[in-house]
């Protein structure tokens, strides 16, 4: 499997730490020190998981320069599609006028969603076929802005990638463990922050170590690790446990906060567009989140 093009989208509206401190008992200092987040982007009334997904997908298709009639698979990862049915993926097929002889479906693996989608696509794709995979979220619609434990963390956005069949293998690992105590979403997100923090560091550490070994790399070989952007301290703790320099971990959470399934592809797109990923680099992508779920993928960038 090969990632041929990436794209991303974020709403124009920005919610700063200062603005949040006028809504709940918090401060810019607390949020920056405990999370690394400065701002997040918030969808306007006329934006949705679908509109953001569409923008990110069009950018990714453009970057990949793949004819849309070659797309055989569309997978969207989201916990915030406003409709139960049709799926985001079906609406993307319609809006982007993709062929109808395709498989198009959504998956719910919370913040691991894009990694799950990437793994699924890599297992399903055949020679000369391409897949469009998207993570898109409007978490602001399920964030309780009276709850300072959660409302400082989340933001909206979308990221996408076009992937193609290649004989170059990707190496993956995934985990799912039913648990509705540490993290649950009903009308709002409910989270036991401490427990999720511990789970996240462990899941990331295990996932990165496992896929690095499977790929035949050493941890020291890794050029870039693109993780779910939940909290800078989670990524720093994982880097420390693995003995990898924290500067190998790509970070953009200061601008966007935690965008759940969108965060890995948004970060990947920024890394690609800013020239931080080159051919031949050894790259790991990793996610963790509600479910509980986690997953990681290692590849040599080609
Ligand atoms: N502003 C000010 N004070 C706050 C805030 C806030 N926004 N939030 C909590 N506090 C207070 C707490 O009430 C507590 O006060 P107390 O000591 O008087 O009880 C104190 O700050 C310390 O709270 P902690 O929970 O210990 O803070 P911690 O350092 O653990 O940071 C955080 C909390 C940021 C939530 C952290 O635990 C975290 O990042 N957890 C992981 C979240 C995550 O990664 N989620 C990913 C999955 S999300 C998904 O799948 C959709």
- What is the β-strand count? 13
Structural class: alpha/beta
Oligomeric state: single chain
Rounded to the nearest angstrom, the radius of gyration is 18 Å
In DSSP terms (H or I, runs of 4 or more residues), the helix count works out at 10
Q: Helix-strand pattern, N to C?
A: EEHHEHEHEHEHEEEEHEHHHEE
> Any idea how many domains?
2
- Just give the CATH class of the largest domain: Alpha Beta
CATH superfamily of the largest domain: Thiolase/Chalcone synthase
Features:
five-stranded mixed sheet; alpha/beta; 2 domains; four-stranded mixed sheet; Peroxisomal Thiolase, Chain A, domain 1; binds acetyl coenzyme *A; 302 residues
Concise overview:
With 302 residues, the chain is of the alpha/beta class. It is built from 10 helices and 13 strands. The strands form 4 sheets. Strands 1-7-6-4-5 form a 5-stranded mixed beta sheet, with helices on both faces. It has a 4-stranded mixed beta sheet with strand order 8-13-12-11, sandwiched between helices.
């Amino acid at each position: 499997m090969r990632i041929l093009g990436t794209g991303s989208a974020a709403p124009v509206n920005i919610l700063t730490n200062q603005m949040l401190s006028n809504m709940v008992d918090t401060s810019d200092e607390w949020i920056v020190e405990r999370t690394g987040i400065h701002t997040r982007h918030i969808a306007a009334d006329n934006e949705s998981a679908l509109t953001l997904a569409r923008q990110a997908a069009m950018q990714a298709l453009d970057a990949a320069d793949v004819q849309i009639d070659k797309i055989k698979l569309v997978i969207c990862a989201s916990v915030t599609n406003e409709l139960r049915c049709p799926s985001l993926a079906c609406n993307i097929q319609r809006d982007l006028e993709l062929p109808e002889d395709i498989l198009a479906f959504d998956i719910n693996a919370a913040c691991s969603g894009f990694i799950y989608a990437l793994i699924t696509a890599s297992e399903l794709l055949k020679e000369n076929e391409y897949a469009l995979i998207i993570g898109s979220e409007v978490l602001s619609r399920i964030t309780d802005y009276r709850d300072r434990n959660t409302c400082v963390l989340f933001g909206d956005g979308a990221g996408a990638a076009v992937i193609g069949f290649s004989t170059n293998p990707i190496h993956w690992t995934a985990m799912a463990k039913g648990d509705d105590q540490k993290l649950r979403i009903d009308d709002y997100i409910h989270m036991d922050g401490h427990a999720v923090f511990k789970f996240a560091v462990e899941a990331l550490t295990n996932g990165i170590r496992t896929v690095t070994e499977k790929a035949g790399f050493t941890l020291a070989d890794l050029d870039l690790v693109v993780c779910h952007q939940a909290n800078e301290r989670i990524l720093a703790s994982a880097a420390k446990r693995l003995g990898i320099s924290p500067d190998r971990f790509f970070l953009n959470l200061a601008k966007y906060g935690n965008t759940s399934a969108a965060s890995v592809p948004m970060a990947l797109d920024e890394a690609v567009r800013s020239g931080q990923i080159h051919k031949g680099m050894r790259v790991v992508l990793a996610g963790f989140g509600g479910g509980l779920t986690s997953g990681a993928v290692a590849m040599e960038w080609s």
